[in-house]
Amino acid sequence: MLEPASPTSRSMPCNGKLIAQLRKQLGWTQNDLGKKSGFTERLIVKAEASQNISASTLHIIAETFLEAGAQVTAGDLSANPAALALEFILSMYKHGPKVIDVNERFLSPDLVVHFAGDPKIFPFAGTHIGIEAARVAFAAFYNVIQPPTDHSEIETFQFVSTGLGALV
Question: For domain 11-78, is the CATH number 3.90.1300.10?
Answer without folding.
Answer: no
